[in-house]
Design a protein that fits this description.
Distance between the termini: 160 Å
CATH architecture of the largest domain: 3-Layer(aba) Sandwich
Largest sheet: 7 strands, mixed
CATH topology of the largest domain: Rossmann fold
CATH superfamily of the largest domain: von Willebrand factor, type A domain
Shape: elongated
Structural class: mainly beta
Number of helices: 15
Number of domains: 6
Strand content: 35-45%
Length: about 1100
């Protein structure tokens, strides 16, 4: 692992509880006992007590003895001195062909607490059986005085080759050549696995007499036996006393060097009938009684050389052989043929079974043998692991938590359990219940990304923290790059804590430690301080960790007086009136271990007020917000008290009590005792405020809420906005439902004037809840200057139409009033026919039920909205003159086209609906003469459809005379009309265009009598029933008028013209004559000729 990753792992572990050695195993003064790293000194450790002297037994499974790496065990004094090897590796097991190299003596150690003896085991000790080695393991029991007691090998079984074999050879003169018999003997002996715990061979030669060539226990190897066989010479003899030779072997050869329990085998080789054949039956019966298996070999060389029938001889030899004959009887043609039965004889003697190789001796230290089952068996049940290959069950420990002698828990380790790609390890917990072990979770190691093998060692240790409950230690020897760590899990009533109280890392003890935690043991007090200590093994080291005494601090805190009275100040601090109090703190130290009751303890305490507040409401009289106490010496079991004065000035929050905090700690936590982490070391006490109510301090408020809105009613709108007379307004408002309020077109907000009054006692935690309908949005709350309190509101994110306000926090005083104004804006996205505003007042105090009715003000108003519509019209035709014979140019009689448009614009805030546009067009006179023809109607507004009627009436093609000279205008009241009705739905700022297109009907316009005539197209806006909109105009309508005029074409007779001319000339002549008579022409002449004008006379 590179440096950055190692730093990251160290940082992550520092965040885990227990990493900083927070509990009572001393990591500063550990004793480290050195040993050989190559021998893996420290792989196992056991505490040991001999007559009060404390020792540590340490296993070194790779220790050498002579030329063999047998492993061994050391005894190490706890106080001082060097370790001594016990030389258990030299212990041998008799009558066994053992193999001691790499047998790992000391790989496991176990102490018997009854007599302080211990077992040191060699799990890879093996012994030879035939050509195979069987690794059965062996343990050496050592007494409490470190003397070897005996060997324990319960898995050791006798080899199938554990036999005593006696070869009975016929050495009479008839055997020839002897050399072939001797070769046969040597070849057979080479087939045997001669050695301790296997085969012993003895040889008897008979003829007339019988002798021991060598006894069963004379030689202990094949080589020695074969060498002895080479020197056996033929004894000779004229008789063949086979019965005598068999009896000699039975009675003497098997007793001289024979072993108890060894299988007895006799091999008889002869070439002729016995001279004492009558004795054979009894000899055979005696051999059967002694459980001697007999193999008989008949050599027919003598019979074949002389041509004698061997039938009798063969029957005799068959009687000697054990049953069945086909397995125990052999015959050969001559001595030279003996070599042909060597293999068959060996196969029939031995039934060799077992593997051909021992368990692998590469069983690495801290490794686990492949093939171990991932399960653990108990007397009552079987518990299974969760992960294959995790080597579940490599460590199994029962835990008696309460020390009653019965196991409460079973811990099963799976040290190679993989998690997130790392070999983290895991320890499973099983609880004993009704004779079965039930799964109860796992122990938690430190969260990290590294190999750990948590659970490589698990030990139940006696009470480490002096709480009378036994604890557990778990090793993780591969943590921190194989440095290792140990976890301490404390017992609790009924079980075990799942998180470690302390994690002891090897790096905190000494540099260079490796595989720390590979073994654990903690049952004895090694340094005579009354506390159980912990022994931990590491590679080449054994570590002793001393337990520290555990201390509990009993603390009490009370106040004088018990409550803060802000209504009556009794002291002055910093020139201001204040309320003064005192906190009385008492401490009593208690050691959990009785051995330390007479040792004084140095304690330091710190006191603070309102430590979680930015600005504390109370202050210590010493002049600061935090008090640092001086260290004091306390005797265990004795109480000591201090009086700490503090005061309270003005504060806005007098509901929540003032918190007085005391933190306690040891003056020097690195020496002496440790504070019990399960016992509180901090004290929090609250000093409440007096609420100012009666003696029972039970406040009974009486809240009253009044609210009204500024929206006008229909009658008020009529009088104030429409400026109509009261009588008209009464009729106006009666047209609507009762309680209707009007929203003017210019209004964007609605205001609520409210007053909250407390007519009772103090109302603590007074609140105002505001809720409103979705067509309103809260804008502001403005408090009136004359109010006697304050209001602070917060919104609820999940409920945007609700708001909660604190009124005069922390309490609304008695007889106080709070006046305020609420402003709400109308929503642009939600339109409703009503609005609802609900105000509800409440408090944490208990108000009586009969006064709660006026705590709520509900404003639910039915609304009518004043429509802000711009209604205009336009037309392309305003005047048309009907000329004589103008219809001649248009054969179909259609006159000029007209196009008029009515436009409606929504200038208001709200979408308009519930309104109808009604257009009436005069299409014919009451006499049935069509005056215009409506060709098309177009409404530019979404998907709305209009209704049209009256335009499809068939009128006469030839108009009739009709006098309209007294009718100046044709409209919807005096003519036949086409009616168009369209629903109006306009969003804010949306427009509606209604287009009318048509042409005048000239035949009727020529035929009708009139000089001037108006055609009026009328458009009106009408409210639908239950429409939420009203109009400021009484009858909002617009009209387009086409002005028509017609010039008359008169016909005058000739006689009228001639008579008129003559009359005119006669009248002119008479006029000239009259003027001449009057002298008109003479007066004009005088003015032109001065000579005719006499000189005027002067005035008299």
């Amino acid at each position: 692992m590179d440096l950055p990753r190692r730093l990251l792992v160290a940082w992550a572990l520092s965040l885990w509880p227990g990493f900083t050695d927070t509990f009572n195993m001393d990591t500063r003064n550990a004793r480290i006992i050195p040993g050989s790293k190559n021998a893996f000194f420290g792989y196992t450790v056991q505490q040991h007590d001999i007559g009060g002297k404390k020792w540590l037994v340490v296993g070194a499974p790779l220790e050498t003895n002579g030329h063999q790496r047998t492993g061994d065990v050391y005894k190490c004094p706890v106080d001082h001195g060097n370790c001594t090897k016990l030389n258990l590796g030299r212990v041998t097991l008799s009558n066994v062909s053992e193999r001691k190299d790499n047998m790992r003596l000391g790989l496991s150690l176990s102490t018997n607490p009854k007599d302080n003896s211990f077992l040191a085991c060699s799990p890879l000790w093996s012994h030879e059986c035939g050509s195979s080695y069987y690794t059965t393991g062996m343990c050496s029991r050592v007494s409490s005085s470190f003397r070897f007691s005996k060997t324990v090998a319960p898995a050791l079984q006798r080899c199938q080759t554990y036999m005593d074999i006696v070869m009975v050879l016929d050495g009479s003169n008839s055997i020839y050549p002897w050399l072939e018999v001797q070769r046969f003997l040597i070849n057979v002996l080479r087939k045997f696995y001669v050695g301790p715990g296997q085969i012993q061979v003895g040889v008897v030669q008979y003829g007339e007499d019988a002798v021991h060539e060598f006894h069963l226990n004379d030689y202990r190897s094949v080589r020695d036996v074969v060498e002895a066989a080479r020197h056996i010479e033929q004894r000779g003899g004229t008789e063949t006393r086979t019965a005598f030779g068999i009896e000699f072997a039975r009675s003497e050869a098997f007793r001289k060097g024979g072993r108890k329990g060894a299988k007895k085998v006799m091999i008889v080789i002869t070439d002729g009938e016995s001279h004492d054949s009558p004795d054979l039956e009894e000899v055979i019966r005696q051999s059967e009684r002694d459980n001697i298996t007999r193999y008989a070999v008949a050599v027919l060389g003598y019979y074949n050389r002389r041509g004698i029938n061997p039938e009798t001889f063969l029957n005799e030899i068959r009687s000697i052989a054990s049953d069945p004959d086909d397995k125990h009887f052999f015959n050969v043609t001559d001595e030279a043929a003996l070599k042909d039965i060597v293999d068959a004889l060996g196969d029939r003697i031995f039934s060799l079974e077992g593997s051909t190789a021992a368990w692998s001796s590469s069983w690495g230290v801290l490794g686990f043998e492949p093939g171990l089952s991932d399960s653990a068996n108990t007397d009552q049940s079987t518990v299974l692991a969760a992960g294959i290959g995790s080597y579940y069950g490599s460590e199994i420990t029962s835990v008696d938590v309460d020390g009653d002698g019965d196991s409460d828990l079973l811990l099963v380790a799976a040290p190679m359990f993989f998690s997130d790609g790392w070999e983290r390890g895991r320890v499973y917990v099983y609880r004993e219940q009704q004779g079965r072990f039930l799964s109860n979770g796992t122990l938690q190691d430190a969260p990290s990304s590294q190999d750990a093998r948590f659970g490589a060692s698990v030990a139940s240790v006696r009470d480490l923290n002096q709480d009378t409950l036994n604890d557990v230690a778990v090793g993780a020897p591969l943590e921190e790059q194989h440095a290792g760590a140990v976890y301490i899990f404390l017992g609790r009533p009924g079980g075990l804590q799942r998180t470690a109280s302390q994690r002891i890392a090897a790096s905190r003890l000494a540099s260079g430690l490796q595989y720390f935690g590979c073994s654990l043991h903690g049952q004895l007090d090694l340094n005579e301080d009354g506390l159980v200590d912990l022994a931990v093994g590491a590679r080449g080291r054994a570590v002793l960790l001393w337990a520290r005494p555990v201390l509990r601090l009993n603390a009490s805190l009370h106040f004088e007086p018990p409550k803060i009275n802000l209504f009556q100040r009794d002291c002055r601090r910093n020139g201001r009136d204040a309320t003064c109090l005192a906190a009385v703190l008492c401490l009593t130290p208690i050691f959990l271990a009785p051995h330390f009751q007479a040792i004084p303890v140095a304690i330091r305490y710190n006191a603070s007020l309102d430590e979680r507040r930015y600005a504390p409401r109370a202050h210590l009289d010493e002049g600061s917000d935090r008090h640092t106490g001086r260290p004091v010496l306390l005797m265990p079991g004795q109480q000591l008290c201090w009086r700490l004065g503090f005061h309270v000035l003005d504060t806005a929050d007098s509901v929540k009590p003032v918190v007085f905090s005391v933190d306690m700690a040891l003056e020097d936590p690195t020496l002496g005792p440790m504070l019990d982490p399960t016992w509180p070391t901090a004290l929090r006490a609250s000093v409440p405020f007096w609420n100012g109510c009666h003696q029972d301090e039970h406040c009974v408020p009486d809240l009253q809420l009044d609210a009204r809105t500024d929206l006008p009613t229909a009658a008020e709108f009529c009088g104030r906005v429409l400026r109509r007379a009261p009588r008209d307004c009464a009729a106006y408002s009666s047209a609507f439902d009762s309680g209707v309020f009007v929203v003017e077109s210019s209004r964007r907000r609605v205001a609520v004037e409210a007053v909250l009054e407390n007519r009772g006692e103090n109302a603590y935690g007074a609140t105002l809840n505001i809720s409103h309908s979705t067509n309103l949005q809260f804008a502001s709350l403005i408090q009136k200057d004359e109010s006697e309190g304050s209001i602070e509101c917060v919104s609820e994110e999940r409920r945007p139409h609700r708001k909660t306000c604190n009124v005069s926090y922390p309490f609304l005083k008695a007889k106080a009033k709070v006046a305020f104004r609420l402003d709400f804006e109308f929503s642009k996205s939600v339109f409703l026919h009503h609005l609802e505003i609900k105000l509800a007042a409440g408090s944490d105090s208990d108000e009586e039920d009969n006064t709660r009715e006026d705590n709520t003000a509900l404003l639910r108003l039915q609304l009518k909205y004043e429509a802000d519509l711009l209604f205009t019209r336009s037309s392309n035709l305003t005047h048309y003159e009907v000329k004589a014979h103008s219809s001649l140019d248009t054969p179909d009689g259609l006159g000029p086209p007209f196009h008029c448009t009515f436009k409606i614009q929504n200038l208001g805030l709200f979408p308009v609906h519930g309104v109808t546009l009604k257009i009436t067009v005069p299409v014919a006179t009451r006499g049935g003469n069509r005056v215009l023809f409506l060709q098309d109607f177009l409404l530019e507004q979404g998907d709305e459809s209009c209704s049209t009627w009256g335009n499809s009436t068939e009128y006469r093609r030839v108009p009739s005379e009709e006098d309209l000279s007294r009718t100046p205008q044709l409209n919807h009241s005096n003519s036949d009309v086409a009616t168009i009705s369209c629903p109006v739905r306009l969003a804010p700022n949306q427009e509606l265009h209604a287009h009318l297109q048509g042409r005048l009907w000239l035949p009727s316009l020529h035929a009708l009598r009139y000089r001037a005539l108006g055609l009026s197209v009328h458009a009106a806006l009408q409210r639908q029933f239950h429409s939420p909109f009203i109009f400021r105009e009484e009858d909002p309508s617009r009209q387009v008028t086409f002005e028509l005029s017609k010039r008359e074409d008169w016909h005058v007779p000739i006689w009228v013209i001639v008579g008129s001319t003559l009359g005119g000339l006669l009248l002119l002549a008479l006029l000239v004559l009259a003027l001449w008579k009057l002298g008109f022409f003479r007066s004009a002449r005088r003015r032109r000729d001065p000579s005719l004008n006499p000189t005027p006379k002067g005035l008299d």
